[in-house]
Amino acid sequence: MREDLNWLILLVSGIVCAVCLWFASHAPWWGALLAAFAFALVNNTPFAILHEAIHGVGSANPTRNTAMGVIASWMFPTSYTMQRAAHIGHHERNRSDVELYDYYLPHESRTLRQVWLYGGNLLGLYWFAVLLSNVLYLVATPVYRSRWMIENFSQRAGFGPFARDLAALPPSRVWPELAAAFAYQALLWWALDLNWQGWMLAHWFFALHWSALQYCDHAWSARDAANGAWDLRVSTPARWLALNFHYHLAHHRNPQVPWPLLPAYASHEGQPSFWRVYWSLWRNGVQPAPPLGAPANRSLLFAPPHARDH
Asked: Rg of the Cα trace of the chain?
């Protein structure tokens, strides 16, 4: 029954996203804005289904689970195999020195880390970076997998460990998945007669939402792989659309629990709201990193550093 529900959600969310893209390209400006806003929320649903498949709980059947993940990845667009490697790596490296976006280490440039936080997580460039890297893999796989890209550019850009993991994946699996994902996007353009303005507006709104969510559920949390996350408070419709993705602490502690069961594992008391964490990132910017194992710094959720010093 759960697998049937996941397939139904994937189908319906895909249709709704396509409708939103059509309106974003063909409606008056106010209708295009509304459609882009709706797309930003609903396009996170197939990503949540992709997330389920990555953890092997989209379907109890491994073949159908992979198929579910591959199809869900088309709407991002990305490769299921790449996303799985990146996400499993995230669980292993969460809140470690190589995966901090709210903090900076003594040897790092705070200015550069501010650019990553504000530009990447808060202004949506994180999603665009993933998109462009996928295009690079599709059109120039050897460049993507080159030593210069892995050891030089990716290290400077802040995603060196992920680049090494992705470059090690077999192109015979990754390239066809990316080709299928971009072919699906091209089909949408042709069938719906989309224009670049509407597509860009909808995907920028989605990039703002998705890029922020990827770190609001971790910012200022404990520097611990399993406990370094929050069970965020959000509105019920937002939680439904994200398939309980906001119960992220429960997920990190129990990664094999499927989304319908996560509320039973979540902490419902004393947890911050999405918006409290979101605005705290804008207000505080990156802060000096506490040592590994440090508990959550809840003070950063409520007041900027200078206000706490007086």
From this structure: 19
Two tokens, residue 77? 């667009």
Backbone angles phi, psi at 231, to 5 degrees: -95, 95
Nearest partner of 44 among 242, 240, 191, 227, judged by Cα: 242
The residues, ordered by sequence, that sit 6+ positions from 137 with a Cβ below 8 Å of its Cβ are 79, 82, 144, 174, 175, 178
Whole-number Cα distances in Å, 17 to 12, 66, 124, 237: 9, 22, 19, 16
Q: What is the pLDDT of residues 8-67, one digit of tens each?
A: 999 999 999 999 999 999 999 999 999 999 999 999 999 999 999 999 999 999 999 999
Residue 159's nearest CA partner among 64, 239, 89, 237 is 89
Kindly give, in sequence order, each residue whose CB lies less than 8 Å from that of residue 238, ignoring residues fewer than 6 positions away.
41, 246, 274
Q: How do the residues of the chain divide into helix, strand and coil, expressed in percent and rounded to 5?
A: 65, 5, 30
Q: What is the DSSP letter of 145?
A: T
CB 169 within 8 A of CB 82: yes
Handedness of CA 54, 124, 151, 106 (dihedral sign): negative
Query: pTM value?
Result: 0.94
**Tokens standing for residue 227:** 């406990």
Q: Does the N-terminal peptide bond of residue 272 adopt cis geometry, omega within 30 degrees of 0?
A: no
Give the Cα separation of 13 and 16 in Å (integer): 5
Q: Which residue has the tokens 């996203």?
A: 17
- Token look-up 């008056």 returns 28
Tokens of 73: 């990845």
Burial 85-111 (b: 16+ CB within 10 A, else e): bbbebbeebbbeeebbbbbbeeebeee
Give per-residue pLDDT as tens, 64-82. 999 999 999 999 999 999 9
* Alpha helical stretches, state H, 193-270: 196-216, 236-241, 248-253
Q: Is 270 helix (H, G, I), strand (E, B) or coil?
A: coil
